[in-house]
Structures are given as structure tokens and as C-alpha cells.
């Protein structure tokens, strides 16, 4: 018998039982000839106590040694209420050293001051720490829950290929040279998008996959070169059907994992969302909404505002109730610097105090305009107005970023809330300055809004799509869309992004060919698994929820991948290094 | 309401209900102005009936059109007992053509005479066929069952990287050039072997993963360049613990999927298995075992046998009861040709008839030897003995292959049986003629048998390991081992395969470093998922259980991957084609 119990499960109710335990030495201290050892396994820690004179070998036992012990569960005199097993200890009768351990480069404890690079190099030691271990277990539990939940709804999990075809019109692909077909390459999938749509053509009706995806992009803090997506696709559906599945899935996850009954999922169109929050992934746990006050200044004599309005820009404002005394002139300059990062040229402000507005633009704003602002915002003593006047997109984005910063800095956020928001009707296209053409904002298989189909060729800018995001507390948790199932519409969309029929056939021919043979209406989502686990576990570091993560330069500090390979391997693949 | 029911679930009990259905036209026929359409969705087929004069549009409806219909469930006059919904039909009141379809390149029906290449090119149509669709659903169900079963046993599913480090000592890796570190490469994992062992070092104790694996090898009929493995690893275990988990998992799968209560899992060591069946993955659903009759011929005057025995070869025989008249001289020549493929130089035979042995070696076998054969095999009228005399390995392998062929050809196999067999104690090393050294037979982290540790350096040939396979009906379903957890033993094994300390450090340093810090005893298995689903679904074509399979030349006929990529992409990766 290697073990009779998990260490972490022992309680006072086990008192006087003889147990066999295994685990790692988490801590060791001597008290005279008595030795106390905290023995850790995956389930937790239990205290061992024994007499050193009993077994010579114990003298050598150090941290992280692997032990097997036999002993009697006994009630402790000095109970430790912080430990689940703190009411008992094990009076050890025999001990066996299963393996030794050198001094570990990082300490296996809840708190660590080890550099992250060291933790990544010795990831197997980092995984012994509760923080990482528990995140991995949580990730497992959520995945299992997702699989069971979707399966009950009739979804079938289907594995799609990792060795795929390189497709244009997306992020950068990871490539895999072919040995059998020298000079040709596979690409690792950025998502199973095309395959899942083909499964809908194939009549699978309800598909999902917890799927590995790959993007060879320069990594931001919250990205990994390989990541995992809860990928869902459904046939014979519209937006409401997809959202209903996602909402019920999220309710199940948050009930099971957090014990939380989620409030209603709000909805905003992209246009509404940008005008109210200056972001397509707003944190709606606090107010501080944006207000378009262009109308207030329509006859302004303040030249800067006037020029912006004439150039079809807007004046955007947020009102900080009772915030006037929270910001010095210097603070406001810093806020302006912050706004400038997002392209704003300036941040103006007005404080309301003693029935009067003072501040950076107090002298150039007319009395009528002031009165209108006071009325509109129902200004009270010590309120603060912040203005950004600029091109619409800049005024929204910069003030939206400022809103988020203020929400955090001023502690306006109720961290106990989980505010879900559907953002819908995204723009169909966005203009790519570099390529001097419109490109698909989501991907070119996203259905345009039915009423916008006629605008596809003539008015791309005002063409909206059936793409949607689900936002949670300011993070984009998923995105998805209803897809095109009509070949004629697909042809128009390709044309709208400047792709000739020949080009479309060359790039996506194998895919659009499928749509000739009876394609059902379909749509779906891809949910960022790491993001979801990060939110559920309360970490803001994606590497805390990945077993063996990579650094920002896409390298694995533990195995030292990527690495150099033999010349022979390259020769077989028909490639050579381009030095 | 897009649909009220799945087509395949409608029964007589639904009679007179008004239903809305969707699906694909599987068949259409006219009877006067009446039109009958078989409407197919994922759940099955239901018959629609309606009057063509009612709706003009119906005239155009052809196979694989996508329809939405409303109608009343009605009892059929001419019931179809072959169809689950065969007692009813839908009297259609309204019909909507959701999408049209061109004539499909393959017919969507259970039986197909389409070439496999055509089926692979139009895989999305092939998936509409019950055979493929049902296999994919079965695969999903088995995976879900495996996940739930292992989770209940405390196993945690953990995703290990796909972008890994290229490791020597295995099959050929797929490589992925790095853009950020030009000149360096990732490798796709042949299995999560090293990562799962590091998870054991990391204290996860019970890990599993349904993991994608990759091998860039020339493909046999039952291989794919990417395949899936039910990967399991456990700490603080020996063979019995691992086997117990696997056996209970297999029992659960076969009970749930096949309604079969599996018989006892038999066990044989590799040596026993080779001597009794001439194979390390024997089909034990029939007898026809091999017999070493070297002893019978120890004093033979038959020079060929004598020379073989002197050279430490063996004489191996199988006895075909009542098989004497089943084989003409020509048939036996063909069997000999078959044996020669496996390296045998000749196949000898003796028939027993009228109390006498006749046949190819009747004249050179002495009367004493004949008497001994008659006694040993309890020969009766019309029995047949087949002999291969050769080096032990050849005599076993060739006669083992012949045994399998005879088992199939003579219909000796009871197809209803699921005979599981653990083959244990595999050789630790095998001699690689090309490299002129011993290499690890399993992988270099496999533990030697404890009693063979002393032989590691001096007697590699007779060193056996704690590696095991699970064989089902002649197929290797999984392989696994207890791993080395003792650094000293690991060092010896590297030395035994001719790897210097420096070389070992260079190749596996990052991995063996981990073993310094308290490594628990551990072991596990990798179960071939495709093989398991093939056996459960009764197909012998691996491509029937993979959604989007590749051909023997590792290409995807549907997407035409691999393909050529832009020069720009290669430049970013720091590689060029070696023409």
C-alpha cells in the first residue's frame, strides 16, 4: 500500500487511524530530538511529528525530499486554524526516503519573490506552488464542465487539424515545412474557423472544440503564441440562439466555480458602445460615461472647438461628480499626457465651484454654453468636466481610455461584480491605410447586416455586420458572428475588400467550393479560455493559467525552445537558413 | 421558431402534432402531383409529403437543398420498418428553400462507390454520410467518457505545449521555424512524454490529456501525421496501479459503447509472448500457438536443422488440427513465400495421415523424431505441422506472421471477442545496426527491471524494462512504462546507449535537471485514440475516424495543404528553399 489517504483530507475524525502517506517535505523544524515535518501532496499539507533518534535516516531529510511514512493520526495540542488539517498531526512510526532533493532554485511556498524568469525556467517547481497548481486544476474543472454542458445541449466535440493550409487575411501564421513535398508548408491554425464552418456544411449542426490556436504575432502581456479557444459553431441559428447558448454556459460556469448568480447580460451596438464608453470592450462596473456635447458648442466662438466641429469632429465630455478637488493642475496635466497616448491633442477641463465654472477653457466658453453644461450635467459643487475635442474616433477612444484609468485610480470599480455585455453590429470593414483598401473587420466570412447588403460595394464605411463580442469587466471574452451562407453575398464581400474572383478562388477556393452544396445558415463564437480562467482565478498574468507558458519573445525558458537543429533535418525539409 | 423537433426523433406518438423541421433533401420522388422528400438532419431522416401544385418553388428542389418546412405528423400507410421514423410522414403545409445545392460530386448515402480521394477532397460531403458522422459522434462520446472517468479518479487534464523543443532519440520531428529567433526552430511534440513527467516532478500526481501528437514519418495505412493520444501519467505507482486504472477505463468504455463485459485482461512477458505467438501484439482470439521443437531435433542428422541448432537457432512449429487436406502443395508453397517476406529461408511441413507423417521433410526426419512429434502434438488423422527453423527472432516472427494469416484465412477468429493482453517486460534496448550501438527500445526514460540494473552496462541484450503494451485483438492499443526517477539509474541508461554525460546534458539537460529536486516514482501510458475508435466502430481505415484526415503523402486533398507560401513569409522566418 503506497498511501491510504491524501494528506490534505485528514481531519480530527481520522484520529487514531493508522495511515500511510506520501509527499514532499514542505518544511522541517527540530524541537530537541522531536522533528516536525510538513508533508505536502497535491491535496494539501499535513504535519508529521517523530523522534529523530528513532530513524537515523531522518537526520538527512531536507526540503522537497520525497517521503513515504506510516503513522497514527493524533489530535494536536496547538491547533493551526489556518490549515485544513490543522487539528491533527501524524505520529510517525516508520519513514522511507523515496527520493532526495537538492536545494531548489525557487522556494515552494505560496508567497514568492523569485523572478518570473526563474519561475519559468524551473516551471516544474513553480507548479508545486498552490497558486499555479490551483489554476491548472481550475482550468481542468472549467474545461470538463464546458464539455459536459455543451454535450448535453447536443454539441459534438470534433478535433480539427493542426497541420493546416496557410491562409491569407489574418494574423501571421506559424509555418511547418513539409518533408514529403519539399518547398511546401503547412500552417498552424489561428483558429478552427474554416474547418468548423465546413463541419456545418457537413451537417454536424452543433460543433464545439476546446482547440489549440496559434498566432505568430509580437506578444503583449496577455498573449501567448499558442492559446486555447472554446470554439462553438451552430447551424440553423441567428444571434439570439448563439447568445442563449453562451449565456447559459457562462451562468453554469460562474455558478459552479464562483457561486455567483450572474445578472442580466446587457447589450449595446458597437456604435452605442463607442459613444457611451469610448471602447468596444468597456468595463461597465462603473459609470463615468462619455457625453457628446458637440451640440452645446455648435455656435461656439472658441476657435479650436469650432474648427473641430467644422471638420466633422466631436466634443466629448465626462463628468466626475464631486471630483473637482481630487486633481491638482499637475494631475490634470498628467491626465492630458495619458490622453495624448491615445492620439488626443489636448484635454480640457472645467471645475464647478461656487456656482461658477473655472478651468482650462473657462475663458473661451461663453456664458450660454456654460449654462447649458451646468443644466445638462446637473452640475453641483466640486464637479469636474473633462473634454476631448477631436475626430470622432480619437475623441471617443482617448476619453474612453481616460474613463477606464479614472475608474481604476478612483476606486470606482466593485470587484465583486461580473458585468457581461454583448457588443453587437460591429463595422463590417475597416480601412487599412497600409494596403489602401477596406479589409474585413472580423473575417471575410462574417455576414453583413441584412439591411446593409446593398451598401457592400458603395458605402463600406457604414456597412455593419452580424459580428458580436462578449465583454466581461472590460475584457473581450469572446468574439463571433453569424456567417455568410449565401454564395452571392460572399462574392460581394470579397469584391468589397478588393479581391478579384480569381484571387478569391486562389486563396479560398477550396472553402467557397463547399458552399455550393447546400450550406445551412450558421454562426458561432470562439471563447478565450485563458482569459476566462484568468478572470475566474483573479490573476492578470496569462502565464499563471498555462502549464508551460512562453515568454514575450515566444521562448520556453525551461526547455530552451526554440533551438538550433541539425543540418540534416533542414536538408530533409528542403530548406536552409537565410543568413 | 426555426425547428420544433429533430427529424430523426419523430414517432407515431407525435401524430397530429404540427412541427417545424429543417434539413437537407436526401431523396426526392414524384407520384403524380404528390412529392415525397426524405429530409435529413444530423439525427436522421423523415419523409415529407406534399402537393407540388401547392408551392411552385418545390418544383426546383433537388438533392442536398436545405429546407425549412412546417407540417403535420401523420401515420403512414406504407410503413418503412428500416427507418426509425418509418411509421410516420410529414404532411407539409409550407416550405421554405433556405439554400440551394449543385449536384454533389459524391452521393450522400450509406453505400458509396466514390473513390477515397474524391471523398477526401469533398470531406464535408462525406461527413454527411452516416458512416463518417457516426464515427465522429462515437469519438466525441468516448472522449467525454474518458474525461469524466479519469476526472472522477482524481486525474487532472493539463494542456502541454504544441510548440516544443526538438528532441533527439525518437521519430522524425515536424519543425516550426521561429520568426523572433531566426535560425531556431520549435518541434511539434511526438507525445507529451517529457512534459507529463515534469508534471509529476511538479507534484500534479495524476495527469491526463487527450493530446495531439505529431510524427513526420512515412505513413502506413493506419498512421496519420497528426494523431491523438489518451495520455496518462501517475505518481507513487507501480505497474499494477497503472494497469488497474487502464483496465477500469477500458471496462467502462466497452460497457458503455458496446454493452460488453470484458473478460479478464491476460498478461504475458515479452519473452513468453514471442515464444508462444511470434509477435508482441498477438491476436489471442484463436490458438495455433508456436511450439519450440528444437529439443526434438537435438540429435538430428538432417543437416539444415542441425546447422541451425548449432548456430543457436531454433526449430519452431505450429500444428493445424485436421488441416492436412486444406492445403495443396501449391498452397504450401504460397505459405512459404509469405514466411520468406518475414525473413524465413524455408517453411517445412509434415502431414499426419494413416498413422504416418509425410511431407517436405518426411524423408530427413528420423523415426524417433517422428514418434516424438506425434506424441508431443498428440497428432491425429489429417493434422498438419508447419516448421520454421532459423535464428530465434526470425523463426518466431515469421511463424507468428503465418499464424496470424492462417487465423484469418481459416476463419478461426471469433469476431465478437475483445481479448485484451498485457505484454510486459519488454527488452530495455535494441541494437541499431545503422548506428552500431544499443538504443532505448521504448524511450531512454523507461525504468529497467530492478533486477536488471546491474546488467545495464555489461549485458544490454538481456536487460529487460518496466515497459508494457496493452494489446487488443492483435492491435497495440497503448504502450507505457514505469519511468526512471533515480538520477543514478538515468545516468547509467544514457551510458548504456553510448551517450556521454556531456551529450546527455546537451540533449536532455533541461529535463534531467528537474530530477534533482524531489522526483516521485511515476509511470503511465499513451493510448492510441484513433486505434481505439477504429476497433469500437469496426473500421480498419484510420481516415474513417478522423474528421479531416490526410493522405499517405501527408496532404489534405480538401484544402490542398501543404502549399507554397509567399517569399515574404520565408524571409521573416530567416529561411529559404533549398532547391
Automatic annotation (TrEMBL), chains A, B:
Q: Which GO terms describe its cellular component?
A: cytoplasm
Annotated region described as Aspartate, given as residue ranges: 193-196
Q: Report residues binding ATP.
A: 215-217, 224, 476, 528-531
Q: Name one GO molecular function term.
A: transferase activity
Q: Top EC class per UniProt?
A: ligase
Question: What is the reaction catalyzed?
Answer: tRNA(Asp) + L-aspartate + ATP = L-aspartyl-tRNA(Asp) + AMP + diphosphate
InterPro entries from the UniProt entry? Aa-tRNA-synt_II, aa-tRNA-synth_II, aa-tRNA-synth_II/BPL/LPL, Asp-tRNA-ligase_1, Asp-tRNA-ligase_1_N, Asp/Asn-tRNA-synth_IIb, AspRS_core, GAD-like_sf
Which BP terms does GO give this entry? aspartyl-tRNA aminoacylation
Q: Pfam families recorded for this chain?
A: GAD (PF02938), tRNA-synt_2 (PF00152), tRNA_anti-codon (PF01336)
Limits of the Aminoacyl-transfer RNA synthetases class-II family profile domain: 146-549
Gene3D superfamilies for the chain: Bira Bifunctional Protein, Domain 2 (3.30.930.10), GAD-like domain (3.30.1360.30), Nucleic acid-binding proteins (2.40.50.140)
EC numbers on record: 6.1.1.12
What are the boundaries of the signal sequence?
none
This molecule's function is given as: Catalyzes the attachment of L-aspartate to tRNA(Asp) in a two-step reaction: L-aspartate is first activated by ATP to form Asp-AMP and then transferred to the acceptor end of tRNA(Asp).
**What HAMAP family does this protein map onto?**
Asp_tRNA_synth_type1
Q: Show the PANTHER family listed in the entry.
A: ASPARTATE--TRNA LIGASE, MITOCHONDRIAL, ASPARTYL/LYSYL-TRNA SYNTHETASE
Q: Which family does it belong to?
A: Belongs to the class-II aminoacyl-tRNA synthetase family. Type 1 subfamily.
Assembly: Homodimer.
Q: What is this protein called?
A: Aspartate--tRNA ligase
Q: Which gene encodes it?
A: aspS
Amino acid at each position: 500500500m503506497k498511501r491510504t489517504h491524501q494528506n490534505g483530507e485528514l481531519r480530527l475524525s481520522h484520529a487514531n487511524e493508522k495511515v500511510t502517506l506520501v509527499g514532499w517535505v514542505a518544511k522541517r523544524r527540530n524541537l530537541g530530538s522531536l522533528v516536525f515535518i510538513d508533508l505536502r501532496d497535491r491535496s494539501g499539507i499535513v504535519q508529521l511529528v517523530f523522534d529523530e533518534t528513532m530513524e537515523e535516516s531522518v537526520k538527512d531529510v531536507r526540503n522537497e525530499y520525497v517521503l513515504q511514512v506510516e503513522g497514527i493520526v493524533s489530535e494536536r495540542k496547538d491547533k493551526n486554524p489556518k490549515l485544513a488539517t490543522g487539528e491533527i498531526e501524524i505520529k510517525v512510526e516508520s519513514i522511507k526516503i523515496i527520493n532526495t532533493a537538492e536545494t531548489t532554485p525557487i522556494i515552494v511556498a505560496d508567497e514568492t519573490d523569485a523572478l518570473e524568469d526563474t519561475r519559468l525556467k524551473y516551471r516544474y517547481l513553480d507548479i508545486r506552488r498552490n497558486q499555479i497548481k490551483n489554476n491548472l486544476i481550475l482550468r481542468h474543472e472549467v474545461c470538463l464542465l464546458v464539455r459536459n454542458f455543451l454535450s448535453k445541449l447536443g454539441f459534438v466535440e470534433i478535433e480539427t487539424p493542426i497541420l493546416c493550409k496557410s491562409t491569407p487575411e489574418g494574423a501571421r501564421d506559424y509555418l511547418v515545412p513539409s518533408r514529403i513535398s519539399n518547398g511546401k508548408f503547412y500552417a498552424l491554425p489561428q483558429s478552427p474557423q474554416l474547418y468548423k464552418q465546413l463541419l456545418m456544411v457537413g451537417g454536424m449542426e452543433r460543433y464545439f472544440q476546446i482547440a489549440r490556436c496559434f498566432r505568430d504575432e509580437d506578444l503583449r502581456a496577455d498573449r501567448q503564441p499558442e492559446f486555447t479557444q472554446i470554439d462553438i459553431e451552430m447551424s440553423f441559428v441567428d444571434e439570439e440562439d448563439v447568445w442563449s447558448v453562451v449565456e447559459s454556459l457562462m451562468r453554469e460556469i460562474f455558478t459552479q466555480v464562483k457561486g455567483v448568480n450572474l445578472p442580466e447580460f446587457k447589450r449595446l451596438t458597437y456604435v452605442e458602445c463607442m459613444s457611451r464608453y469610448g471602447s468596444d470592450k468597456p468595463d461597465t462596473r462603473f459609470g463615468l460615461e462619455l457625453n457628446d456635447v458637440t451640440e452645446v458648442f455648435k455656435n461656439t466662438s472658441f476657435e479650436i472647438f469650432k474648427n473641430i466641429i467644422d471638420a466633422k469632429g466631436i466634443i466629448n465630455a465626462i463628468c466626475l461628480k464631486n471630483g473637482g478637488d481630487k486633481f491638482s493642475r499637475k494631475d490634470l496635466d498628467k491626465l492630458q499626457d495619458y490622453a495624448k497616448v491615445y492620439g488626443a491633442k489636448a484635454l480640457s477641463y472645467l471645475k464647478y465651484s461656487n456656482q461658477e465654472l473655472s478651468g482650462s477653457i473657462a475663458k473661451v466658453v461663453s456664458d450660454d454654453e456654460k449654462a447649458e453644461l451646468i443644466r445638462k450635467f446637473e452640475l453641483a459643487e466640486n464637479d469636474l468636466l473633462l473634454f476631448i475635442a477631436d475626430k470622432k474616433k480619437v475623441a471617443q477612444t482617448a476619453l474612453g481610455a481616460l474613463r477606464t484609468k479614472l475608474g481604476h485610480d478612483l476606486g470606482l470599480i466593485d470587484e465583486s461584480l461580473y458585468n457581461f455585455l454583448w457588443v453587437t453590429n460591429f463595422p463590417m470593414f475597416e480601412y487599412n491605410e497600409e494596403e489602401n483598401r477596406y479589409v474585413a473587420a472580423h473575417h471575410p466570412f462574417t455576414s453583413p447586416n441584412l439591411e446593409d447588403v446593398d451598401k457592400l460595394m458603395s458605402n463600406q464605411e457604414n456597412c455593419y455586420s452580424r459580428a458580436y463580442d462578449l465583454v466581461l469587466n472590460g475584457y473581450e471574452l469572446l468574439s463571433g458572428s453569424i456567417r455568410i451562407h449565401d454564395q452571392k453575398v460572399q462574392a460581394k464581400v470579397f469584391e468589397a475588400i478588393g479581391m478579384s474572383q480569381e484571387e478569391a478562388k486562389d486563396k479560398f477556393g477550396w472553402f467557397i467550393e463547399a458552399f455550393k452544396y447546400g450550406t445551412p445558415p450558421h454562426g458561432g463564437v470562439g471563447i478565450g479560455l485563458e482569459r476566462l480562467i484568468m478572470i475566474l482565478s483573479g490573476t492578470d498574468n496569462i502565464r499563471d493559467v498555462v502549464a508551460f507558458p512562453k515568454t514575450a519573445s515566444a521562448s520556453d525558458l525551461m526547455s530552451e525552445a526554440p533551438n538550433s537543429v541539425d543540418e540534416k533535418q533542414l536538408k530533409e525539409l528542403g530548406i536552409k537558413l537565410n543568413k
